[in-house]
Amino acid sequence: MTSESSCRICGEAVAEFLDFGIQPLSDAFREPSDPAEEFTYRLAVGRCAGCGMVQLVNEVPREAMFHDDYPYVSRGSAVMREHFGALARRFLETELAGEDPFIVELGSNDGTMLATVAAAGVRHLGVEPSGDVADLSAAEGVRVRKDFFEESTALQIAESDGLADVIYAANTLCHIPYMDSILAGVRALLKPHGVFVFEDPYLGDIVERTSFDQIYDEHFFLFSARSVDEMARRHGLELVDVEHLEVHGGELRYTLALPGARRRSEAVGRWLSTEDSARLGEQDVLEEFAARVHAVRDDLVSLLSRLRDEGSRVVGYGATAKSATVTNFCGIGPELVEFVCDTTPAKQGRLTPGSHIPVRPPEAFRGGDGGAGGNGYPPYALLFAWNHAEEIMAKEQAFREAGGRWILYVPTVRVV
Question: Which of 91, 115, 179, 256 is least surrounded, with the fewest CB atoms within 10 Å of its CB?
Answer without folding.
Answer: 179
